[in-house]
Fold:
Amino acid sequence: MMQYAIFARSVVTIYDLPQTTKQSEAGLVSTIGDEGLYGQACQVRTAPGGVTAEGVPLSPEVAEVVTFYGYHGFVRRDALKFVSEDALRDYLPQPLVLVGRATDVLSLPKVHYQIMDHCFHQHHNQDQ
Structure:
């Protein structure tokens, strides 16, 4: 049975390995590979604390995921909201999803014409 999750932070780091750093010829380097954005869905390939298909045991704090565009990586458990397939199917077709109480949705940007008009005339008069 497939498992799914939704990225639950503004920007979620996706690592190429189950750990955040690795040893290389240059020394200790980051394993950051990609980012997931709030609200994007992913498939959970290996749940936290599980063992990957390659036989790598995961910490209870890390999940192995595949993004909707096919990127494979590892994400901290606390950055994911685990959901059922039914819940995901209900979530994905929504035309607008409120992601925070401070969201302000406008059909057009608010323009302050008088301020811009004043600045234009002030600059224009200096050029003459």
Summary: The mean pLDDT is 82. The beta strands are 3-7, 11-15, 21-24, 27-30, 32-37, 41-46, 62-67, 72-76, 80-83.
